[in-house]
Structure formats: C-alpha cells, structure tokens
Amino acid sequence: MPDAQTFESGIEAGLRFAYVLDGRGGGREVDWRGVRAWSPADGVLWVHLERDDEATAHWMREAAGIDPVTCEALLAEESRPRVECNEDALLVVLRGVDLKDGADAVDLAPVHLSVTGTRVISLRDKDDQIAALRDIRKSLAAGQGPRGAGELFAQIAAKIVRDLEPVLDKLEDSIDALDERLAGREISGAREALSAIRRQAIGLRRYLAPQREALFRLHLEEATWLARADKIRLREVTDRTLRYVESLDEIRDRATVLHEDIAAVASERTASATVRLTALTALLLPPTLLAGLLGANVSGIPFSDDPAAFAATCLLVVVMLAIEVWILRRSRWL
C-alpha cells in the first residue's frame, strides 16, 4: 500500500489529472496534494484516475469518502454500462471508444464515474485512450469547459457517445462496399470481410444496448445537481445511443442477408461446375464404352486385321461426339 509520501511527492501515481472548476468554464489544475486538500467550498472537483493503479485504489478506499460498495464497483475490472443512484450521488459506468494505436478492431473501454454536486471522479485503465475526456480537459484549459458537476457529467456522456459515430460510419461504409462487390458476383475474400464486420457489430452492440438502458435510467433519477439543460443534453445523448443501436441492428441484418447472398453465389457456381463435369462425363462415356469393347482381349473383334479400321474408329468417335454435343445443347446442358 502506498504511503502518504507517494501522494505528496512529485510522482503523480494513479492520477491522470485533476481540476477544480471555477464556475466560469475554466479551472485550476491540481496534483495529489491539491486533491487531498480540496473542500467543497473551493469549487467542483474533477479527478481523473487510473483504475488499475495501486495509488488510486488506496485513495479511493481510504481518503475519498465513498461508500465501500460503490468504491469496489468503481474499481471493478469487468463492468457493463449501468447507472446506480445512492442518495444524491450517481455511480455510472459507460463505454467509450478506445483509440489505442495499432489495434486491429475497435474496442469499447469502460469509464467509471462517481458524480455528486461537488465532485466528479472518473476512472479508466492505464492502457486505454479515450479522446472524450482529453477534449474536456483541453476545453477547461481554454476557459470554455463545463461550469458545474452536472454540465461536466453531461459533457462526458455526450463526448463518449460522439466518438462512436465515426466507428459506425466506417462499419456502414465497409458493408456498402461489400454489397457492391457481391452485386458484381465477386465473392473472393468476401466471407472473411463479412465475418469481421459481423463480429465487430456484435461486439459493439454488446455494450451499447445496456448503455442505452443505463442512459434511459438517468431520466428517472432526481439528482438535484442536474439542471434542466443537463437533462436535455442527456436526453439527446440517449436518443443518439438509441440510433446507434438501431444502426448496429441494421448492419447485423444486412450482414445476414449478404451472408445468404454469398452462400447462394457459391452454390450457383458449384452447381454450374457440377453440370459441366456431368456434361463432360456424358460426352466421354460412349467413346469410352467403344474403346473398352474394341480393346477387349477376346477373339472375334471386328476389323482387327483391316489397316483402315483405326481411322474408321476415330471417325466414328468424332461423329458420336458431334451428335452428343448437339443433343446436350438441345437439352440445355451446355
């Protein structure tokens, strides 16, 4: 367990940043010393921490003054989006786009929030990179940020959901391109691309569906520090999340239809190849039968001593093939 010196030294273990809002769109950045010395009279405090750091766990359990059950929920490793109200405080878990460099697929990283009228605590893992919180920090530094706890919370929710739009647009563009390829009956590599789209859509919906329900629940909570403007903004965030879930459902349905199209095209090509092979077998069957009869090692083979017999046999085979081709074309096998 880290001692007090860990928090009082220049090593800001577990602390990404902290601001005391001035109520006019700006704020004063503080370190662990400032966090520990803060009181509600100083203004709204926003503390952004690394959830998986030992210093964070120590401060949350020993100095933050948070209910133990709520504290453990905030520090939990695995968590689905949810909203819980404890008196006038909110425990909120949302999922935002992780902008980790080099990642093959988009991941939704959790942001844990404890919100009261005087303090906002947000937590994320060390390796996660969520642009929404960074953007709010920049706006505070420029004096154009949130002025209170409710506005700060509404902005966090809005910007987390905002970053999902480019991801869904990219998914829709990918499935549109795949649809155009299949319209041209080009299925090479389409199955793998479609599987990747379906997996990503399912993975995103896994968290966005409960996040939609969590945001819906915010409308039922009567937190006194949530102003009317904040509630309106949260309602817009909920509506946008609902549209995103509907978009994912549409992408999933389109992926199912495209999968059926791929299977149909592959089946048609297999059937066409089978017909050609069957026609080829039909063409070769009579000459094969004739060659087998004439090649039998028994006495009485006709024209065995005639020098022109081989040429006559070849001519007969050609005539038979011509007749078979005519018959197969009349039957539309060729």
Can you walk through the features of this model?
Helix 6 (149-162) runs parallel beside helix 9. This protein has 10 helices and 7 strands. The chain folds into 2 domains: 4-265, Beta Polymerase, domain 2 (2-Layer Sandwich); 268-330, Methane Monooxygenase Hydroxylase, Chain G, domain 1. The protein has 334 residues and is of the alpha+beta class. It has a 7-stranded mixed sheet with strand order 2-1-3-7-6-5-4, sandwiched between helices.
Uncertain segments:
1-11
CATH architecture of the largest domain: 2-Layer Sandwich
Helix and strand succession?
HEEHEHHEEEEHHHHHH
| CATH fold naming of the largest domain | Beta Polymerase, domain 2
Q: Helical proportion?
A: 55-70%
Structural category:
alpha+beta
What's the overall geometry? rod-shaped
Count every beta strand, where a strand is a DSSP E run of 2 or more residues: 7
Indicate the CATH class of the largest domain: Alpha Beta
Give the averaged pLDDT, no decimals. 84
Q: How many domains, in number, for the residues?
A: 2
- Beta-sheet strand percentage? 5-15%
CATH superfamily of the largest domain: CorA soluble domain-like
Give the count of helical stretches: 10
Oligomer: single chain
Outline the biggest β-sheet. Answer: 7 strands, mixed
Distance between the termini: 81 Å
Alpha-carbon Rg, integer = 35 Å
